[in-house]
Amino acid sequence: MFGNLFDDDGGGGATDYAEGGNRIPPAPPPRNRTGLAGIWNQGSTCFLNTALQVLAFTPEFRVQLLQLPQKELGKLEEKEFNRQVREIPLQLQRLFAMLMLEEQQAVSSKDVTDSFGWTSGEVGQQHDAQELHQLLLDAISQSLKGTSGERLIEALFHGKSVNKIKCLTCGNCSETEMEFSDLFVHVEGFSKGLQESLDNAYCSAEMMTGTNQYKCDVCNAHVDAARTTTLRSLPPFLKISLMRFSYDMKTWKRYKVTDRFPFPMEMDMSTYTEQGQSHEDNVYELYAVIIHGGSCDGGHYTACIRDIDDLGHWEDPDKKTVQVTADPTSVVECTSPEQLVAFILSKQPGHSMTMDKLSADILKRTGVPWSRSYKKRYGSFPKFIKDNPHKFLVDGNMVTLVENAAPNSSENAESSTTGVSPPAENVNDNCSIEERTTGVTPMTNGLPEKEKGHPPSGQCWYFFNDSNVSPMHAKDLQNEFAGKTSAYLLFYRRKNLPKRAEGDRHPACGMPDCLLEEVEKKNHLLQKEREEYARKEREWKDEEERRKTEVQVEVRFHWTHGMEKGVLTSQEEQIMLTCPRLQTLGHLCDAITTLGGEALSPGFHVHRMRCWEAKRHLFDELEDKTKTLEELSVENGTILFVWDGQQVDGQPVPTGLDSEPITLQLKQYCSAQEISHNFPKNMPLKQFHAQVSSLSGIPVDLLRLQFPDGSMQSGEENSQEKETLESIYLKDGSCVLFDGEGRASFATDANNQSNVAISETEPTPAESQSEYRFCVNIENRCDEQEKKQKWSVLELEIDKDMTVGEVKQLFMATYCISCEAAAIRENDSLKGLQTAYNEDLTVGKAGITRNTKLVLDTLQMTLAFKLSPQPEGKEEGPALQVTLHKHSTVETCVEAMAQAAGLSEPSEWHLRKTNFFGEPANILEDLTQNLYQCAINPGDFFILEKGRLPPKGFVSLPIWLYASPKQLDASWLSSFSPKIEDLLIGDMKKGKDSPQRVGDILISRDATFEDLRIEIRELLVSQKQLQVKVNQLRVSTVEGRAKRLRRVLRGAQTTLRRLKITGETVIGVQVVTRDAEPSTDQVVLNLRLRKPEERAYGETQELVWDCAQGSSTARLKQEISRRLTMSEESLTIAKHFPDDFQWKILTDQVQNQGHHQSNNKKGKKRTHAPKSNIRLKPFQVQDGDVIGVIGKSSQLVGSDGSAPGPEDFSTPEDNVGREQQLERQRQKQLERQAKHLVDGLCGPGKRRPEVPLRIKIGDFT
């Protein structure tokens, strides 16, 4: 039940809409069957929600706080008049009233956090629950000063402790009394739990000796003393904080103590009091636990609380209740799978369904498959059906409900229609199915009687997870003794506190009338809101049903439309027509004939019309009158245009998708006149010329057009017949420039009735001059400062006849800008910096206006680089530099750098970027891209590395030949010739064990592993004359500076991409006789046996360990003992970590101290120790690992006979490596200290401050 600790909370109610795409916002959900309300999480306020719930279920505190009169606390309304109002207790009163009486699943704590003065920092950041609880009690205590509840917090939660120091010389005893509200107890090292930790804190004396001696006032000297702490007085409510967060002084890191720490349900605190005698006032009962799940860096808080006043309705959590959706306005709750299946079958004709459909219906109605909800307890679904023959009959795959097993749902059905829930006494005890409509009174009214096994009064426990509340067993608290999710705060209540009378345990007990009225109004509004939601939902359902059978279309006649600017226009006269979906088009045409009357000519056509922006266009025609509207895809809102199929308003109308209109802006050079017109996108260019000529009044043979792509065309040029407006990529809003010699009037031809948007009057001379000559702002980016944040923007006056090159020269001369390579570019607000303008174009033809944002940008950049590796005979010097054009390709850049470095073959080098720290980063693989496309900026630093780049999708893999694995028997050599044998192990005999580089292989990443091995075999044959079979090649990856073999590649048909082979991978090859490719359950290890009485190892031997039967240390020892013919008990093995020069002894000790639980077939829980797996953390034994072996004969001289430790495995080389590593760490630490010193002198960098936890309190003294 504690599995969903990290679920995100909704924050404001249900979010699921009704089935079928209902867009009606749902009403706030009512309380669940527990009858208790949660608190919404505002972001990260789980630490606050748990504390508020604990206080709300502390009856003595809740009732006394609610009973505080309003005249002492003030009114919230008076806060606006700057009057002193005790806002925190007032908001807590409102919150408690909502938690007790408001009929919602959860309530909001925003008003409470606002009264704390919290902002999004406190609400959105995690804080400690113990710190919050203490601050909250202090804030309440401060806010109640001067009222009748001034001592409320002190009387309920505060106790007193006394520290005594007794001089062991004279016997003098000094006392110090302290007040406490929390008892802090240690967790680490106290596996017996709370009582052991309390014994250590309050029953044992701390001896003050040595340097910690106590100065006695009587002896006037430092003497030995004994210090003890006891409890002088205990509060009615005792809070115990478990110290689960500690600090490791070695690693300087915080960590969470997850050790087992049991705590009792009842305990006697008399042993820890000053009197030490048993008393009934010292006996406490547990009533709340706050749980923390996660780590010391963050997590989630939940709470387990005992319902002392029996405010909720407890149900056995083991008996799951399944909510089945019967329809959008009702919910059916089933407490057993028998009831669930019976209910579903009872709704089917003949009370029968197939097994498959029944299983699918369970998933559809509950949202949870059978395998997740019931399989663990009842088995598979077919097995469950067959195990209940008294309820279900099985005939093949058909399941039928037995008549007397049908649920009694007649009353429920009646209640569903009337909207009233059935009373509790009418509910069948054997088949508890309750059907209730959405929005009725919550389940607190008319709850069923207590079932058998129900906890006693005041002993019901509930689990609070923000907005969710669910019942739980008290025994489940044992699950919170240990682990990452464990108890953090314990709340105990004095057992002999007087029990409240039955009438005083009502949720509204002690609540003032003003709060009762407020909650009552809120509940009334919630009820109305739910009823309104149910009404809208019914209306929506009816509308959906109507939509499924009817369709509403809009009919438009041609006489209500005209043609303007090449598209249809409308007088907005429309007729809505509703007809059945299954009605034929012929019947619809009859209705249209009736609507049109005599004005409609026979044989009319019906087209589908679409309207967008100011355009209307006709698409496909509805012709087949025998088809239904559903078959013709006529949906709601479809516009049908009725006409003769030829003309509208005397003009032809293009139809179809290909002739969809586009709006073009026609502009004339050096003129303010502009024409906006619509043209079909499939219009040929020749016809387009004629149309523009007609609109502009310029003869076709004199008309010249310029399109957005810069191409120009005159009327004399014969364009291709198939070339259309769409083919030259004209679209809505495109601008086409036109001009002509001997320009005629723009008046439209008398025969052309098109209304054209042309200026009626010629521009004045002043207007023409302002359009011809204007000022532009040009941003200067040729500044020498390479990373300047703000560039200077300068103004320049130009005219349309100037070329872009003349504008550049004028700008540079006017403002004395010196730049060898510069260009004018447009800085578009949406598209960014555009390509440079052609300097031969005029300003007018380039489309530059007074609003165009221009940039003078340098086209050169300076790049720094270094070589890797350095050529022979050259020492590494300062970084080299080259200056290149921004549009230079990567290949040109490599050639320039090679020339600057004095390299003769640039093709043998490639370029690599660096990161912020100057470390190697991505390789520039595409040599055809320019520097601008590669996002390269001036001043970037690169590494020019040796090596030719492979083609795209290929990798160049270096191949290294390693010595064949050494084995104890020499039978594996028999299959090779003497020449090959000498080649394979000749270097071993000479004492050389270093690998040999064979060459490189260029291969595609999509090639298989088998293809790679074939390529390697061919390389070995050509370079080493080594005749071997492909299956005798073991291929591994090589890692580290020591070039150690690591991961063995497996899977003949697996691609190199899947094997994560990249251009950085190095391949190592070994020749073996058999089993070259180990299985996935096998690990290839290197065994090294410690020499007797020496800190050295013998020759490395290979071990192929089969882990199919287990991956424990014991299994590995068995394999090693068989291989080395040594006793298993005498072996100690360890894994070598070469990067750290450390050895770690392999053991089967499990880190997790808990036990796994599993259920057997009878449902009984059993525990078993988890299996050890050294292939997982912390050992992670894998291919290529070195396993050191020490036997009894390998003990070092002077050994005391105890078990070997990690140092016994170390060699002198390990010791040297560790010393060098420590020296590097010390050097880095000195560098960091020097950097901090410089930062301290120059000013520290800004760091985001942490948000402290605080509660603002007014001054009420």
From TrEMBL:
Keywords, in A-Z order: Coiled coil
Domain USP, first and last residues per copy: 37-495
Record keyword Amino-acid biosynthesis present: no
Gene3D superfamilies, per the entry: Cysteine proteinases
GO cellular component: cytosol; nucleus
Compositional bias per record (Acidic residues), positions renumbered to this chain: 1-10
InterPro entries hit by this protein: Papain-like_cys_pep_sf, Peptidase_C19, Peptidase_C19_UCH, Ubiquitin-like_domsf, UBL_USP40, USP, USP_CS
Pfam families hit by this protein: UBL_USP40, UCH
Protein name as annotated: USP domain-containing protein
